[in-house]
Automatic annotation (TrEMBL):
It comes from the Eukaryota. Residues 5-70 form the Large ribosomal subunit protein uL10-like insertion domain. It comes from Thalictrum thalictroides (Rue-anemone). One of its GO terms (molecular function) is structural constituent of ribosome. One of its GO terms (biological process) is ribosomal large subunit assembly. Keywords: Ribonucleoprotein, Ribosomal protein. It holds the Pfam family RL10P_insert. The lineage of its organism: Eukaryota, Viridiplantae, Streptophyta, Embryophyta, Tracheophyta. This is 60S acidic ribosomal protein P0.
């Protein structure tokens, strides 16, 4: 089992966020916009439209990326 992403650590693997319903409130859409993740509102929750490569292997984890992964 991998460890949670922490700010400033180097990613050992590519991290891809799959499409699908997040279960998060529509007020969270700006959070996804900051990370350039395409979303839509579906049945009152945020849905990710397409897969997104959030972090590439060897890149440092940013605060927004770590926060998103902590929500999952």
């Amino acid at each position: 089992v991998g460890a949670p992403a922490r700010v400033g650590l180097v990613a050992p693997i590519d991290v891809v966020v799959p499409p699908g319903n997040t279960g998060l409130d529509p007020s969270q859409t700006s959070f996804f916009q900051v990370l350039n993740i395409p979303t839509k509102i579906n049945k009152g929750t945020v849905e990710i439209i397409t897969p997104v490569e959030l972090i590439k292997k060897g890149d440092k984890v940013g605060s927004s990326e770590a926060a998103l992964l902590a929500k999952g």
